[in-house]
Amino acid sequence: MSVKPVESSEFTTLENEFQGRIGTRVIHLRNTTSTMDVARTLVEETDELETLDGTVVIADQQTRGRGRFGRRWDSSHGEDILASVILCPRLAITGELTTMAALAAAMTVDELTKRRSVIKWPNDVLIEGKKICGVIAESATTGSSFVGVIGIGLNVNRLAADNVLQNYDATSVREVLSLETVVDRRKVLRVLLANLNELYDALVRGESIMPEWRDRLSELNSFVEVTMASERNVGEIVSGVAEDVDEFGRLLIREPNGHLRAVAAGEVTMRVDRHDR
Questions:
Q1: How far apart, in Å, are the Cα atoms of 84 and each of 28, 39, 102, 115, 204?
Q2: Which residues pair with 273 in a beta bridge?
Q3: What is the distance between the alpha carbons of residues 192 and 112, in angstroms, rounded to a whole number?
Q4: Rounded Cα gap, residues 200 and 209, in angstroms
Q5: What is the distance between the alpha carbons of residues 18 and 24, in angstroms, rounded to a whole number?
Q6: CA dihedral angle for residue 192, residue 195, residue 199, residue 200, rounded to 10 degrees
Q7: Are the CB atoms for 227 and 235 separated by under 8 Å?
C-alpha cells in the first residue's frame, strides 16, 4: 500500500507542539481504505518500530473504515476525525490503551461541547444518548517489541441528515453545538492529542486511569444484555445487572441466578432497567 500524504497540511503543523509525544509525526491522507490499514502497513514495513512511536495517521475520507465487530464507519469527505495512533508502550500498560483512547475522546467531547459525555462499555462515546465517537484497537508483537494501533472515529461536522442509513443514533460536535458553520478539525485534533498525551503520560508514570473511565460508564447499575464476542463464547448472551468493572476493564454482570460474570468483550444490546447506585 502506497502512502501519499498531503504535501501542505494544516494537521502536520501540530507536529511542532507534540515533538517526542503522540503527534510527533502526522501523516495526512485525502483518501484511503482505512487509517488502520495504513498504520498496519507502516508497522509491517518498518525495521525500527520505535521510530513510529507517536505517529498519527489521519484521513479526510475512508472507503473501508471500520469500527468494532467489523462494522463500517462511514463519514463524508473532510467532515470528521478519522485517525489511527501508533504506540510502542511497555507491556505493562498495553491493556489500557483502548481505555485511554475512549477516555481521551470523552474528555475532548466535553471540552469542545461544554457538556458531559458518557462511555458505553467498553469504548464508545455518547453524548445526549447519541454516539459521537468510536474506538478500536489492534496490536502486534515483533520479537520483544509491542506495537499498538488505536483507531479513533470522532464525528465533528456530520449532521442528522447524514445518519439516515445508519442503524444507530449518531451526532457530532457541530450538531450538539447547533452551529451553522463547520468546526475546525485541526482544533479538534489538537485537543484530542493533548488529552491522549495527558492520559498516556499518566500511564507511563504508573498511575491508573481506570477510576475516571469507570465513572463515565453508562451501564453501571443497569440491567443489560451483552452479546459475547470472545473466541469461546461468540453469540452467547449474558444478562443481568452491570455491577462494576474489574481491574482489567471487564464488565461484571450479576446474573439472575446470583452468579457474578466477568465479560471481557461484547456488545451491550439492551438496557431495560436502572438501579440506584
A1: 11, 7, 13, 25, 20
A2: 223
A3: 10
A4: 9
A5: 5
A6: 50
A7: yes
Within 13 A of 37's CA, how many CA atoms are on the CB side? 14
Q: What is the pLDDT of residues 121-160, one digit of tens each?
A: 999 999 999 999 999 999 877 767 889 999 999 999 988 7
pLDDT, one tens digit per residue, over 247-258 is 889 999 999 999
Burial class (CB in 10 A: 0-12, 13-18, 19+), 21: middle
- Whether residue 189 has pLDDT greater than 80: yes
Report the chain's terminal Cα–Cα distance, integer Å. Answer: 50
Contacts of residue 202, defined as CB under 8 A and 6 or more positions apart, other chains included, come to: 209
Task: Say how far apart CA 71 and CA 3 lie, in whole Å.
Answer: 24
Distance between CA atoms of residues 153 and 133, nearest Å? 5
- Give the up-direction half-sphere exposure of residue 239: CA atoms within 13 A in the CB hemisphere: 9
Distance CA 76, CA 89 (A): 33
Q: Spell out the residues 6+ positions from residue 221 whose beta carbon is closer than 8 angstroms to its own.
A: 241, 242, 243, 274, 275, 276, 277
